Amino acid sequence: MAKSCLVCTGPVVEFLDLGRQPLSDAFPAPGADPAREHFFRLALGRCADCAMVQLTEVPPAARMFHRGYPYRSSGSTVMREHFARVAERLLADRVDPFVVEIGSNDGAFLRTAVERGVRHLGIDPSGDAARVAAGFGVRVRVAFFAEPLARSVLAEHGPADVVFAANTVSHGPDLGSILRGVAALLAPDGVFVFEDPYLGAVLANTAFDQVIDEHVLFFGARSVLGPLRRAGLELVDVERLPVHGGQIRFWAAHAGRVPASPAVAELLAEEEALGVHDPARLRAFAARTADRRRALVALLTRLRAEGARVVGYGATAKSATVTNYCGLGPDLVSAVIDTTPAKQGRLTPGTHIPVRPPEAFGPGRADYALLFAWNHAEEIMAKERAFTEAGGRWIRYVPEVRVV
pLDDT per residue over 104-143, tens digit each? Predict the structure, then answer.
């Protein structure tokens, strides 16, 4: 029986099953009761009516985005620079703007507003992340963004000239409430800018690890048109982004207020030509995903038999999908290296591989590093040049399994 679409209530046909998975950012402490871990079935489906690709089972948001949510936007130099650039761009030529960020995390985007003395408000459900942002002078309201909250912000602060969100809109199962909230809060000539994983890039790269509990929806230009229109908004521009392995930035405004860029029609035509939302292409993606699992497990099994020491690099949310889908435990990957203090000394979700600090990595400590944080490959490999120069090898699995 088909599930009902989270966006339009149409029938959803499943095409990818990644099996039983834990919450991707829930790192248990050693000795913790395994029964306390929350598991769900991680699977993707496509709505037959609106073409939105989505999770067919969504864990409770409060379990994923809570006070101790460990992800920090500023953890990567590349991402800090990315957010600073987009902030400067959005604030340019605006007189006394009011800027709202949905999912402000540790304030990587809004720090520019603070530095420029711009009125702003971040909205994020993680109290710990909000405290980090507050330390930089960012004003944050700890809450989930939805239409009622948006109307409360409007009553207190007035309309927003810019509403920005990065890797947040796709996390919300109630997309309609989010977009209605944006429409209510946005000034008549305001702009709503949101960037999220791009379905086209996920398919092209066979980036199956982009499918995690937090990525509830996978956007293409075609699939966002309807939700925006129902909220009274209109898609006016699109941009491809290289960050996080291939994202897309959507620009929206109140219907009829801003002329649409030719880039919108161009991307719609490209998606149609490539079959980005075509069921056959989605099934082919699922088949390639199974091939990647077989190849990766075979490689790691051979390396273990040869006595090689393999560690993972980057205890990312994506790594939870890979380790659990492929059945990678401490027998195949002895540890995962990560720079996030909150994750160090804990275990990976579901598979319970120890998470170690960068000091535990380097020449003589491992023969191979399985690069879970492949979207930061250039930054990481430059930082860990000594490992490579000493003969260490990196294992990649996107877009294919290979040793580099």
Answer: 999 999 999 999 999 999 999 999 999 999 999 999 999 9
Q: Are 292 and 401 in contact (CB under 8 A)?
A: yes
Supply the pLDDT for residue 67.
64
Give the residue range(s) of CATH 3.40.50.720 domains in the chain: 281-403
Strand order in the sheet with 160-166: 140-142, 119-124, 98-102, 160-166, 186-197, 247-254, 233-241
Cβ burial, residue 77 (10 Å; 0-12/13-18/19+): exposed
- Classified by CATH at the fold level, domain 73-280 comes out as Rossmann fold (3.40.50)
- The CA distance from 155 to 177, in Å, is 18
Residue whose tokens read 């540790």:
106
> What is the C-alpha separation between 58 and 337, in angstroms, rounded?
28
**List of residues 6+ apart from 53 with CB closer than 8 A:** 44, 45, 46, 47, 199, 217, 218, 220, 223, 277, 282
Q: Which CATH class is domain 281-403?
A: alpha beta
**CB-based contacts of 305, cutoff 8 Å, min separation 6:** none
For the chain, the 3-state helix, strand and coil shares in percent, each to the nearest 5, are 40, 25, 35
| 3-class DSSP assignment, residue 183 | helix
Which residues contact residue 168 at a Cβ distance below 8 angstroms, ignoring those fewer than 6 apart?
Answer: 102, 103, 145, 194, 196
At residue 3, φ and ψ (nearest 5 deg) are -75, 160
Q: What is the mean pLDDT of residues 11-35?
A: 95
The encoded tokens of residue 294 equal 């077989």
